Amino acid sequence: MSRIITVGAAQLGPIQRADGRPQVVKRLIELLHRAKAHGCDLVVFPELALTTFFPRWWVEDQAEIDAFFEREMPGPETRPLFEEAQRLGLGVCLGYAELVAEGGVTRRFNTSILVDAAGRIVGKYRKIHLPGHAAHEPWRAFQHLEKRYFHVGDLGWGVWRAFGGLMGMCICNDRRWPETYRVMGLQGVEMILLGYNTPVHNPPAPEHDLLANFHNGLVMRAGAYQNGTWVVGVAKCGREEGCDMIGQSQIIAPSGETVAMCATLEDELCVARCDLDLTRSYKETVFNFARHRRPEHYRLIVDRTGAVPPP
Predict the structure, then answer these.
(1) Catalytic residue among 40, 93, 170, 172, which?
(2) Burial of 3 from C-beta contacts in 10 A (0-12 / 13-18 / 19+)
(3) Which residues pair with 252 in a beta bridge?
(4) Contact (Cβ atoms closer than 8 angstroms) between residue 37 and residue 88
(5) Catalytic residue among 47, 84, 98, 240
(6) What pLDDT is attached to residue 297?
């Protein structure tokens, strides 16, 4: 018997620095309505879906940066999104900047949460692979200061039972690293929800710029196929504060095939009916980890080559 979940990849066009939370939440709610009209069960929003991509600016006033962070979820400005999703009977995956103050210590994370159709937060992930730099590099056309503004995620890659299957999350640069998918794959993940804000221009390696969309799709398709899982990759894209960001939000099957993709650089929804049971033919044959994966030999190879062993 098939286990069908209809997913909407809710791509966002640019969010400008002056755009307030209520204005952005209104756009997210409009995408919820489109998703409901298409029969969706789950709507996936991008990384940092509530604000502009603020790490592109060097700012010394921490209070100015902290204005981009959420101290509770939902809060007064985001509660309408939760309430409307619950009213519509939709689950949501939402990326945002999270500020946590515990025991006199303040930490800041690039976070994603999974919310069920009843409005309950059933899963939380904090970004582990932070790209960019921490020092001011004024030679760049724009900064990429995630290493300055965020702590490395401390929750690991979890997998949660929700929406009739095993759901996982990761964020943006995580998608480039095979360990991201494999850690969830070893937990039997059947669908990975992935938001990103990715500039077209890579200042340290501009020769990569023309391949930005290709590399984006490549790593997500490989992660899906090699771990027998669906992957839902969702962009915030377009020209945001003078910085061009890639789009091509897409839903990828366990075969590695893209089954739905956005065509614009604006607010857009692409939808796919995803059968979670399609993961089985990959998990039970080509990528049956218990039968074919040989981690005991990985250590032997490392020892013989003198390479640094994996953690």
Answers:
(1) 172
(2) middle
(3) 231, 258
(4) no
(5) 47
(6) 81
Asked if residue 61 lies in contact with residue 93, where contact means CB atoms within 8 angstroms, the answer is no
Is 127 a known active-site residue?
yes
d(CA 223, CA 219): 6
pLDDT per 10-residue tile (average), the chain, 311 residues = 93 97 98 98 98 98 97 97 98 98 94 98 98 96 97 98 98 98 98 98 96 98 98 98 98 98 98 98 97 84 56 50
The amino acid at residue 269 is: L
Q: What pLDDT is stored for residue 300 in this prediction?
A: 64
Place of tokens 């890659």: 157
3-class DSSP assignment, residue 307: coil
Give buried/exposed letters for 35-72 (b at 16+ CB in 10 A, else e). bbebebbbbbbbbbbbbbbbbbeebeeeeebeebbbee
Query: At residue 196, what is the residue type?
Result: Y
In the three-class reduction of DSSP (H, G, I as helix; E, B as strand; rest coil), residue 279 is classed as: helix
- Specify whether 124 is catalytic: no
For residue 206, cis peptide bond before it (omega within 30 degrees of 0): no
* DSSP state string for 133-172: -SS--TTSSS---HHHH-PPP-S---EEEETTEEEEEEEG
Selected catalytic residue, list 127, 190, 236, 270? 127
